[in-house]
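Subject: Interface between my chains keeps coming out wrong

I've been trying for a while to get a sensible model of this assembly. When I model each chain on its own everything looks fine, but I need the whole thing in one frame so I can look at the contacts. Pasting all components below, labels as-is. Any help appreciated, I'm running out of ideas.
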Amino acid sequence: MAEPFRFFTETGLTIHTNFKADSLKSLLYGLKKVSGSSIFYHVHHALLRRHFATSDQMNDFARWVLVHLSQASLAERLSAVDPMGCKSVREAREQLIDIVKEYVGIGELFFRVSEGSEFHFLQMHSMVLPLKYKADDLESFYKGLRNASLGTFFYHLIEAPIRLGKQSNDFSEWLSHSLNEDDLADEIARLNPYVYNLWELKAEILQRVRRRLKTLHTS
Amino acid sequence: MRELDRYTPIVGKAEIAEIKHLAKNLRGIRVHHINSTKEGGGVAEILNRMVPLMQSLGINATWDTVDGNTRFFDVTKMFHNAMHGQEIKWKPEYADVLLETNLKNEAILNDPADVTVIHDPQPLPLVTFRDKKKRPFWLWRCHIDMSEADYHFWAALRKYVEEFDGSIFHMPNYTKGLGIPQYIVPPSIDPLSDKNKELTPTEINDTVNRLGIDPEKPYVLQVSRFDRFKDPVGVIKAFKMVQKWQDAQLVLAGGGAADDPEGAAVLEEVREVANNDPNIHILDLPPTSHFEINALQRGARVIVQKSLREGFGLVVTEAMWKGKPVVGGATGGITTQIIQNISGFLVHTIEGTAFHIRQLLANQGLAERLGTAAKEFARSNFLLPSHLKAWLLLLETKQHQNEKISFLK
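Reply #2:
Try treating it as a single job with all components included. I did that and got this:
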């Protein structure tokens, strides 16, 4: 008997870190000093807050640099930091620091934004809730996914793997270890959440599970 | 539960189930809200909705107000204005009036409460009389923009605020560098209220017609008080640029000019710049015109909020919730709500405003794309159920202080 998959969902409260930046220099300082939770919030969690915006201006740093500093090329480079390409929050932080550092290095004059337009470093007090239902086969897994909120997808695809330093996401791990569905697990693991919005991502996953169910039924 | 269930078609089953789940964990918790008035103003409006909703979910929520004499309310008005950056000469006796009135209201704290929530500055000194056994957890909800607060007035309040277990602000730039947790919880709109409920095409058409606007010709709308910070004159100038290319109407719907000398002066200026153009409609509506504003917003092709300075900008939220593309000044909470070319356009100039209005009037596909994204953004972030959920999470922090991630039952 396969170990059941327990669905969770994530929500939370945003907290100010008391760090803010009014220029690229102070942004760089903040990037070095703030907690990993704050980097996670601005890089990863932005997906949950503005998920319909797809990858364009996806992380908060890129968006601030574009909207308030009008530095389009830096914004473009910051947008290209792929959260799924980073094994840890530390790696994402290092990439961001390198990009901003290099840009500050080549520029001659950088503006300060006016009061009220600063970048505020925030972090999240995440709260994770267990959902009522669980899955013990592919059929009930599909049903669970269909009823799940976007917070569930964020938790199992992003929060849990990064927090626990896992190689893969919760869905793929369970499909592979408990159901021996290695191909399906691999297909889901290869989906990069940051090039979709969360609805699209949900639809992509559902479509793959549905297709597999169909194959199982016909064979 | 029935009250909350009315929101299911709007935010979906999963969201409502999550709220109920959170509420179940908190069932029976005693939450005591305290502010300074039961009527009028945004705080009373929110508590009038939030307290019954919490009660319907099994939370023992109550709401009281502090009583004070005219002197107290004069002084708190001064505090309010000074918090908004108005120059007012500080006198130490103001702090005494605040403290003495709250001392007279100490009995308000007689009954025990698990969580005491103080709204805005007026009842802040009550925290001085805190009994840690009877009232272990205190939160301060600040509803006003204090980013330009007067130093002396803020110093008199800050000592009380630092006594709380947590503070809650609408936006990050309202925070004050406090030593206690500063939570960011945006305000919300109620999708079932008169101002935001669904209307039929006939209701929209009839109302727009009644207000003297041609329902057949597309119109651009700005809803705001006649206030220089909302730049109504700039909107007219932008519209005049648009008129060279598009046959459209402009509607400036506002109010407050009758009892505000500055508002009357701005309204006069606006009329002068409009120069009796039959395609520019200036409506000075009474503050109770929620249904009319709703119809105007729903009938508009493009909505503008060309503020030069703005708080959160709930009027932008209202427009977004109605699926309208918004051209908004890049200031305050408007920058939180509008994502450039995704859920609207952010602008800095009259020319930029004119350009994007033109674009949206001409390109229906673009307008629909932005409007759809805007509606979804409002749905997931700024509707009453999200606000209620945030409150439930704030109540949870009592049991989960200093944690970064909490696993709930």
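Reply #3:
Confirming on my end. Chain B has two domains: 2-188+383-396, 201-381.
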